[in-house]
Write a structure and sequence with these properties.
100 residues, three-stranded antiparallel sheet, Immunoglobulin-like, alpha+beta
Length: 100
């Protein structure tokens, strides 16, 4: 048996599986906007790689420094944009719609 789920159904299924496995998102708010987020760490800092696949602009709060642009602090992430953030260890990034 096979099926092709709608995106909404797939989101519910995968969200339930992630909850059962006690996992959490790399960055809060990224998935609903279509932002792929991967975090890598070294001895000195955390690096957050963001790829925006969605169609609505997002805003990244509390992130650190964008290594591609040099911007620091709140960052606007346009659809199709990418960012590589060097995070301050004491902050936690969140992403939300730029319209909020």
């Amino acid at each position: 048996m096979s099926s092709k789920l709608t995106q909404a159904s797939l989101d519910v299924l995968l969200g339930g599986l992630a909850e059962q496995a006690s996992t959490r998102p790399v960055v809060g708010g990224a998935a609903p906007l279509g932002v792929e987020a991967v975090r890598r760490r070294d001895a000195h800092a955390d690096y957050l790689f963001l790829l925006h696949h969605g169609d609505r602009a997002g805003r990244v709060d509390g992130a650190g420094t964008d290594l591609l642009t040099g911007e620091r602090g709140t960052l606007r992430l346009a659809p199709g944009a990418v960012a590589v953030l060097r995070e301050d260890r004491e902050t936690t990034a969140t992403i939300r719609s730029a319209e909020d």
